[in-house]
Amino acid sequence: MSHEFSNDWPKKPLIEVATLQRGYDLPVHERTTGVVPVFAANGPHGFHDKSMCKAPGVVTGRSGTIGNGHFVESDYWPLNTSLYVKDFHGNDPKWVYYMLQAFGLERFSQGAGVPTLNRNLVHGELVLVPPLEEQKRIAAILDKADSLRRKRQQALQLADDFLRATFL
User: Fold this and answer.
1) Contact (Cβ atoms closer than 8 angstroms) between residue 58 and residue 18
2) pTM summary value
3) Which long-range contacts (CB under 8 A, 24 or more apart) does 105-110 make?
4) For residue 89, which of 65, 130, 164, 167 sits 20 to 30 Å off, Cα-Cα?
5) 3-class secondary structure for 12-79?
6) Which among 122, 70, 66 has a CA at the least distance from the CA of 96?
7) Does the pLDDT of residue 110 top 50, yes or no?
8) pLDDT-based confidence at residue 117 (cuts at 50, 70, 90)
9) If we measure between CA atoms, which residue out of 60, 52, 55, 86 comes closest to residue 73?
10) What's residue 4's pLDDT?
11) Rounded mean pLDDT of 117-133?
12) What number of helices (H) and strands (E) belong to the chain?
């Protein structure tokens, strides 16, 4: 099979590709020191001693920050301001992460003051679903590109720091 886009890929509703679920309440005063990452709408938000979800995981903002996704490689606790993928339906979790990044969840936000994402609005949206091996290949390519992007950002920061230090 060609490694190009295929019109043969089925279109499925998002709920059949990656079922999103609202996270769980965990007030700061109820957190116990631990190593389990806690995720809010905008990303990592401390640690706890218990997890609610098994790795790998994908978490995105539900309230406040919408569409900012995170791939989680250890068991974790998604807060109620986030949505997490409850069921990958046999799809590659890393591909699901990248697919959701490209999906544009922020376009489904509601609310004037605090943007909120209602998962029921997006669950019916159709998604092209490549075969599992193709999903893995796509995710590997995007991982490499993301790694190069991060290294470039680090190099630019080092160059800025060097210039600033040289000037001073």
Assistant:
1) yes
2) 0.83
3) 105/60, 105/61, 105/66, 105/67, 105/69, 106/66, 106/67, 108/66, 109/66, 109/67
4) 65
5) EEHHHCCEEEECECCCHHHCCCCCEEEEECCEEEEEECCCCECCCEEEEECECCCCCCEEECCCEEEE
6) 70
7) yes
8) confident
9) 55
10) 54
11) 93
12) 3, 11
One-letter amino acid at 66 equals I
Neighbours of 83 (CB within 10 A): 27
Positive or negative torsion for Cα 52, 46, 25, 93? negative
Name the packing angle between helices 93-103 and 132-167 (round to 10°): 70
Residue holding tokens 């995720």? Answer: 39
Q: Give percent of the chain above pLDDT 70.
A: 95
Burial class (CB in 10 A: 0-12, 13-18, 19+), 164: exposed
Count CB-CB contacts under 10 A for residue 34. 14
59 or 149: which leads in pLDDT: 59
Structure tokens at 77: 């606790």
Q: Which of 18, 17, 46, 21 is CA-nearest to residue 32?
A: 46
In three-state secondary structure terms, 5 is coil
Q: How confident is the model at residue 163 (pLDDT cuts 50, 70, 90)?
A: confident
